[in-house]
Amino acid sequence: MSVKFRLVVMNFLQFFVWGSWLITIGAYWFQTKQWSGTEFGAIFSTMGIASLFMPSLMGIVADKWINAERLYGILHLCGAVMLFIVPTINDPHTLFWVMLLNMCFYMPTISLSITVAYNALSKQGEDIVRSYPPIRVWGTVGFIAAMWMVSLLHLEVSALQFQVAGAAAVLLGLYAFSLPACPPRDTRHDSLIDALGLRSFALLKNYKMAVFFLFAMFLGASLQLTNAYGDTFLHDFAKLDEYKDALAIRFPAITMSISQISETLLILAIPFFLKRYGIKAVMLMSMFAWVLRFGLFAYGNPGALLWMIILSNIIYGMAFDFFNISGSLFVESQADAKIRASAQGLFMLMTNGIGAILGSSISGIVIDRFFTGANGALDWHGIWLSFAVYSLVIAVLFALLFKHEHKPEALTRVGALDSHAHGG
After folding, report:
1. What is the average per-residue pLDDT within 47-68?
2. How many other C-beta atoms can be found within 10 angstroms of the C-beta atom of residue 337?
3. 92 three-class SS
4. Cα(51)–Cα(348) distance, rounded to whole angstroms?
5. How far apart are CA 76 and CA 86, in angstroms?
6. Of all helices (H) and strands (E), which one includes residue 176?
7. pLDDT in tens, 260-308
8. What is the pLDDT, as a whole number, of residue 344?
9. How far are the Cα atoms of 61, 136, 201, 320, 419 from residue 117, in angstroms, in the given order?
């Protein structure tokens, strides 16, 4: 079995685990458990909390003490235990702590999977920039496959989705021990600040980079809004007689998977747009794509206006890729060579960490206070319009505050293209 194929399997299972529940946990939460939006926001903030410290902490462990592929396997096996526990829980507060532990085990595996793949390809003498992206795209395929499986088996409102994820995590955890060895590196640092990758925070002294990271955080919040509420939004149409038999409502996760399909295709357009128009224009395209993403959801329905929902999902590819992956490339081009890895960690901290926490927590409170009726019904039109207005305000402020002169030659390093590719 070739090394590339083994890495394809790893990436497929890596995001199959996440895709089995990330988009559909909202349907389970609101439709089956009927818990509140504020509590749901807290659940979705767990991945942000975990992203604040676990990836860098586990990175240090892999650098100094244990093979990365073994640590990767151990973390997935521990995460599987948490996923199997989820169906036994009937209290949202307890579920918060279980999901937080699950995310503490899962989030570091994203960066560890990249470390294992880079190491294996390097040993084979492969050009990583050319060889890795076609391997990584199978992660998104795995995410889509999980969504389709959960939807076709009608597990979207069932706790069985977590057992599917747990079974995949066990399989991947055991499989990880067969991956090419990635031993610790004898990495020495001059100080604790270097060891923890904190040197990259010096980038925030630069006005341009400080503004960039601030808006990366705001866009990270937008990503959590669509992950948290998209599938639940479609499920609510099933309560209306005119839509309950619509194909998009019978298989909402499949409908939402159009977003991931779009994402895989638009990744290929990023180098062209970045070199041609520059980071500011590309980020603005992303921001206005978020406005359209949410605005189309506000007015769409599974009947005559189904095209709006489908178009919204197609636009998601630009909304996500053009800020997440393009942003990663921009950080790579701006950071000093000595802190590029930690600078990418700072970018992940702002988007998947702080941005995710704020987006999840604040949206849950706002939805509970302003868009939830006395009978518990959600005003989805108002919810999506408020998200669209938020995105529009962010876009306008970014256009006014971010100052950057586009230099195409500065974007010659493309090694970061895969470092923030999404699972969902």
Report:
1. 78
2. 8
3. helix
4. 8
5. 15
6. helix 160-176
7. 888 878 777 777 787 788 888 888 999 999 999 999 999 998 888 999 9
8. 62
9. 17, 9, 27, 23, 12
Contact partners, residue 279, CB within 8 Å, separation at least 6? 212, 326, 327, 329, 330, 404, 406
- Two tokens, residue 31: 């439709």
Query: 32: which DSSP letter?
Result: I
Q: For 304-321, how does the pLDDT look when each residue is reduced to its tens digit (9 = 90+)?
A: 899 999 999 999 888 887
Q: Which domains does the chain possess?
A: 1-185 (1.20.1250.20), 194-424 (1.20.1250.20)
Give Cβ neighbours of residue 16 (< 8 Å, ≥ 6 apart).
Answer: 142, 143, 145, 146, 168
* First vs last C-alpha separation in the chain: 28
Amino acid sitting at position 214: L
Give the C-alpha separation, 202 to 241, whole Å: 57
Report the alpha-carbon distance of residue 331 to residue 274 in Å, rounded: 13
Whole-angstrom Cα distance, residue 382 to residue 378? 9
pTM for the structure as a whole: 0.72
- CB half-sphere exposure, 202, CA atoms < 13 A: 13
Rg over alpha carbons for the chain, rounded to the nearest Å, is 21
